[in-house]
């Protein structure tokens, strides 16, 4: 559990550093802190080099967002979901190839 959310784990190695990421499949957003992304759920914790460095969510709020706080963008271009996914993939490919040789193993429980 991270921030009271059930998480699954994934581990990989980047530049000889072990990286464990704990993600919440119940929050279907494929992003996380810093440059960490690409897992099938929101990454809530990242552990680098056996906990030498840890980035962790403390609290997840599921309160309803006040509609007054939400504003329709005045700039930009409306695109279909398919086009959005294409743009997102293109932008991810433009990032440094730090994960090009990464192999990811998944865990089904937090230990």
Q: What is the rounded Rg?
A: 16 Å
Mind summarizing the main beta sheet? 5 strands, antiparallel
State the separation between the terminal residues, measured CA to CA: 9 Å
Given the helix and strand composition, which structural class is it? Answer: alpha+beta
Fraction in beta strands: 25-35%
**What level of helicity do the residues show?**
10-25%
Number of strands: 5
Strand order of the largest sheet: 4-3-2-1-5
Give a structural overview.
The chain has 111 residues and is α+β, with helices and mostly antiparallel strands. The protein has a domain at 1-60 and 102-111. Helix content is 13%, strand content 26%. The protein is built from one helix and five strands. A five-stranded antiparallel sheet has the order 4-3-2-1-5, with no helix packed on it. A hairpin with a 4-residue loop joins strand 3 and strand 4. The radius of gyration is 16 Å and the shape is globular. The relative contact order is 0.24.
